[in-house]
Amino acid sequence: MGELLTDGILFVDKLLLSRGFDDYKWIRPGNMPVSYWVRMKCMYGCPDYGRNASCPPNAPTIGECKALLAEYEKAVFIHLFYDSGPKLMKDWVMRKQKELLDIEKNIFMHNMEKAFLLSFDNCNLCDKCTGSVDTCRFPYMRRPTMEAFGIDVFSLAKMLGYHISVKKDFKESTNRYALILVN
Ligand code: SF4
Fold it and tell me: What are residue 10's DSSP bridge partners?
């Protein structure tokens, strides 16, 4: 591992811990499971398909996603946990998205210019998404989810020893996962 990469990893470790993100794992992005069925779930069944500017069809093809992920050597897979009920969920998602975007920005500013966040939820920065890339209110903050990139988050979380399950009720606590592609 190069000196620059080691320095970068130490920087990201310190940054994440200082922001309270203390449950994460370093992974090699090219080894992540990426599948067409994940995109199919976006297309058939998700109410945000075509209605949120961060979601498919406003996303690269699965082949392009695979190629992009293979360009990175290091990424951090971050576990988030929410247990405060459905009413406060949107505020929590918005707050965590902003915190993760700021972490991405700090990594970028530390000379890791490839830094890119794949969020744990579709973009929630506006009360109501415009649904269009052309009219997005904060295009520099719009990020796709891991699922929008075809990443099989269920398999990946399990491979890494994390808990994940299908929610049967919005009142249930939830484990969420984000990814920051680092270098
Ligand atoms: S910034 Fe607003 S308009 Fe743009 S993708 Fe996010 S929610 Fe939609």
Answer: none
